[in-house]
Amino acid sequence: VAPRGLVLLYHRVDDVADAHDLSVPPALFEAHLTWLRANCTLMPLDEMLSASPETLGDRPVAVTFDDGYLDNLTVAAPLLARHGVPATFFLTSRWLDAPGEYWWDTLERILQEGVTGRPFEIEIAGRSTRLSTSTAEARRSAHDQLHDALVHAALAERDRIVTALLAWAGAAAPARADRRPMVADELRQLSRIPGMTIGSHTVNHLALPDQPPDVQQHEVAECRAALTSIIGRPVEFFAYPYGAIDRRSAAHIRRSQRWGLSCNTGRLGDSFDAARVPRLEIMRLELPAFRDAVERMFADSPELSLPAITRLPE
């Protein structure tokens, strides 16, 4: 049975690689768009989700971006507009008033670029932890241990550990000015480009299943309110940070938002859960691998694994 369509998930359009292969170089992203334009029906996300399947055309595809990086405005949006491709961008709201840095980018730049070899000592979940940084392998291990802990942490715990890491690193490996989430005026610019739609992604990019109900509700409601105030129109789409969903968080999104998007690999059928819309995550996939991944999603019995990619949550 042919699927209703396929939703693609991107994060960054940037020539500089990162620890999780989330950055797609601009030339490669444009090659993706060129192939999609020639081989699929590109359409707005809302139309794909709400229209009757028989009206959607051949092999419908919608493009989305998570995290609201500045390059979504400065690099991705001009390429999308050039090719006439609509897209939906999911933004957090913590950094709308002043430039900031996502915690995983802080972790990467300090432990992979600026570390001096001194051990990093920190209390994690009530336990004293000493992380070696004396070799590249040790730094990667330290990165992975901290990453695993911070993905599931409460906000106060996460901020405490990141603050301690920054103090430990001192002036090493300054943050890249362009690798940051958009601020309010940049979001407003993006929202005014024809074909570009804004969705919410919580205030602080917390994994909702790990948070109590009141925090879940605050993260979802406050982000949506902030984005709505800035762009001046309703924000009806939500994407789960890290793709983390459980029954409770899905039920909350089902009550409070029109659509909730996951990171679960899959294609849309005629019937689907409005709070668990699947997406195919596109990382640094060269064109042949990208083409094959999309083709598989439209095959009668799609193979859901991507070639040669190991995904860590961002």
Write the layout of secondary structure elements.
Layout: E1 6-10, E2 12-13, E3 23-24, H1 26-39, E4 41-42, H2 45-50, E5 60-66, H3 70-82, E6 87-91, H4 103-114, E7 120-124, E8 127-131, H5 136-151, H6 155-169, H7 184-191, E9 196-200, H8 213-231, E10 237-239, H9 247-256, E11 259-261, E12 280-281, H10 287-297
Parallel strand pairs: 1-5, 1-12, 2-3, 4-5, 5-6, 6-9, 10-11
Antiparallel strand pairs: 7-8
Report on the architecture of this protein:
The strands form 4 sheets. Strands 1, 4, 5, 6, 9 and 12 form a 6-stranded parallel β-sheet that branches. The longest helix is centred in the last third of the chain and has 19 residues, at 213-231. Helix content is 39%, strand content 15%. Helix 1 (26-39) runs parallel beside helix 3, helix 3 runs parallel beside helix 7 (184-191) and helix 4 runs antiparallel to helix 5 (136-151). Residues 304-314 have low confidence and may be disordered. It has 10 helices and 12 strands. The radius of gyration is 19 Å and the shape is globular. With 314 residues, the protein is α/β, with parallel strands linked by helices.
Shape: globular
Helix content: 25-40%
Radius of gyration: 19 Å
- Into which percentage range does the β-strand content fall? 5-15%
Tell me the structural class.
Answer: alpha/beta
Put simply, the count of helices is 10
Number of strands: 12
Query: Distance between the terminal alpha carbons, to the nearest Å?
Result: 33 Å
Largest sheet: 6 strands, parallel
Give unreliable regions as ranges.
Answer: 304-314
Order of helices and strands, N to C? EEEHEHEHEHEEHHHEHEHEEH
Let me know the average pLDDT.
Answer: 91
